[in-house]
Amino acid sequence: MRQAGRSLPEYRAVRAGVPMLESCRRPELVTEITLQPVRRYGVDAAIFYSDIVVPLAAVGLDLDIVPGTGPVIAEPVRTRADLERIPELHPDQLTHVTDAVRMIVAELGDTPLIGFAGAPFTLASYLVEGGPSRDLHRTKAMAHGDPDLWHALLRRLAQISGAFLRAQVEAGASAVQLFDSWVGALPADGYRGLVAPHSAAALAAVADLDVPRTHFGTGTGELLADMAAPAGVDCVDVLGVDFRVPLDEGARRARAGAGRALAVQGNLDPALLLAPADVLVRAVREVLAAGDRTPGHVFNLGHGVPPGADPGVLQRVVDEVHAWTPARREVGHPVA
Ligand code: CP3
What we know:
This protein is an alpha/beta fold.
């Protein structure tokens, strides 16, 4: 569950007075925050505490993560000269990340760590807009209006994204997730022509490392077949499905796109965490039942945890999932 930690009092306590990006640069703190939801909820995997803009900061871009807003870029990227300010990412710029991954993996024991990166389109959307945006007009205007500049920008971002994924896996992460959170702003033909080859390049950066790769976006119902094998490249093992598409239908679209069965991840609507318990539990069981009709299912929310979510409610969700899958859990996590 992305950003599951931020609804926890123990997270707020250790983050007090430490800005988000600064917290991502302190391996001991990253380790503590990554472990908090695992300790509290007993979830089956940890997600690395960092952010999709951390590798952009690592190459020297001036940006901040503003509480309640998200990433804000000091000088937005709009021209060829702006693009030239973005260097390639080299592993030696990520020692704070790899130190943290090693510490976490040592603490986690058998529980897997999921590493991640932002996909080129979603990273570009922050860089071009200068911050979060509802409609991504400037981003789409650049993509269509200056395709040479756009593709050059996405090539650079695919290198950065791929290098960030690779560093995490080489330091011990057992799976990766590529977040293309905002790519649902495009229609399928736009996705194919403007985005897919670059997402494939980012995922291909860990092709030889033998880790499962999850590809995630929101509002992507029309894109699922393409996201299952972007640019026709076989680089996705698990396809994220948001709450707008039933999981079994998502699995059908994934198979149509990839030409083979993929597992799916999702897709409880995070809004239901705020609904009465009986409504929530019924919805969790519906997701689990739909997941049983797919080739493989990773339970998750359809998007991130709202900051105001009640930790007790999240515990209830985790317990419902575990009650549904005792046999499968034993395969992954033998009980001593
Ligand atoms: O759960 C985790 O802590 C895992 C680490 C993680 C974070 N961000 C930490 C974070 C992950 C996997 C992300 C990914 C991320 N960051 C995405 C892709 C996933 C998705 O949700 O779509 C995106 C689009 C971002 C950019 C970003 N960073 C946003 C939109 C926000 C939220 C802004 C807000 O306050 O509403 C952030 C900040 C952020 N990243 C927080 C955390 C824990 C909240 C910081 C805080 O206020 O404590």
